[in-house]
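Handout, page 2. Input:
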Amino acid sequence: MPPPPPSGDPTLAQLEAARATAHHGPSALRPRHGSALCLSGGGFRASLFHLGAVRRLDELGVLGSLRTISAVSGGAVLANLLTHPDLDWPDPRRGPGRVGGLEELVATPLLELTRRNLRTPALLSRVRPRGWGRPDASVGVLADGLEQAVPWWGTDLREHARSRGPAVLTGTTEIGYGVSWVFADPYSAGPRGRMGDHRLGHCAPPPGLRIVDAVAASCAYPPFFAPLELNGDELGLVGGAPDPDESEDVRAAIRRRIQLVDGGVYDNLALEPVWSDHETVLVSDGGAVFRGRPPGSLLSRLWRLLSIASSGGQTARLRWLHAGFARGALAGATWSLESPGDLAGDPGRARGTGTPPGRAPEALGAIHQVRTDLDAFSAGEQMVLERHGYLVADASVRRHAPGSVLLDAPSRPPHPQVAGPSEVVSALRGSGRVTALGRR
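Output:
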């Protein structure tokens, strides 16, 4: 028999239990309850796509009934707007309802935010003198830019108060252990909120850590943005499960400089925090569409390999989730930029009373090419992405998760001025191009 572990060290069973908790799948061991909405990464493109989906989910009574919203990167931008303390979430004791204030407190600020170029000032901060010697200069400038656009995000995360609504979980990637580090506000985990991961442990957010810092960290895609750094020795982390053969020196070094980057690096669908214990899981995927590409330079091949690794992990998660749907372990639906919105959700345009259906693939192709960026998006880009998110969410939820629909609301897709394929293509002309200094 192997010798027993030293006093205070975790047993192998405890380590395995911790791994099972973190790397769970649709076959959960604990009872499932409630509905979760996962909002993927994908920069401002994803934020706008998710806005359309959230509009339709609100009309159907789904949004107001959610237990949890889990989000990363561009999805975290929208998710944290949904934590505004003045939003009027329906009282579940009174039955289904819509969320009051969604237009003025969520949609309008998001559209204003996504008209700004936040990427370029953040990147330039790394080469300007005042950024020298600051390892997290770019993520700090990104956070400041986000706060200028959404001032109430400057509130300390631990002090953010609201009375109702779903728990909102903001995911980042912790580099040392390569796992998901999650920020939860006080409503999600009282009394002061919660942050951490299953390897390093958890704690309440420290004073001075703003909502906007969590959002910026979730959007900080490497190597373009530096990680947000935290000193774990000062946080009071509790719990955590190290590797069985890990030295204390290695663990101490990781804990001393906790580095957090874009949550999409580890889990771009934001699935991990919710897929083991929710009865219904809805996934809105505004991530980049993966397409075939001919051989290129060494640099382009390396970048392609990284993209393949990321896409493969995301595909595996989706297959795992869909397998859970198929065997009845949980209910739910998924939709993405690839979903044929004109064909699935806009029958008047696609099936004979408007633009012929043969042109719909051209519009979808233009949507697939929209860039992943935190640069300014034009009004046309905003309208197309929001409308597409509305249409595909409506079609997917009604077909695959009809039990989630609580209100009988007719479909009224926003922005009819970009309903036809030719209007979509025109609005998105040049939208795939990333410019060095930004569009504004």
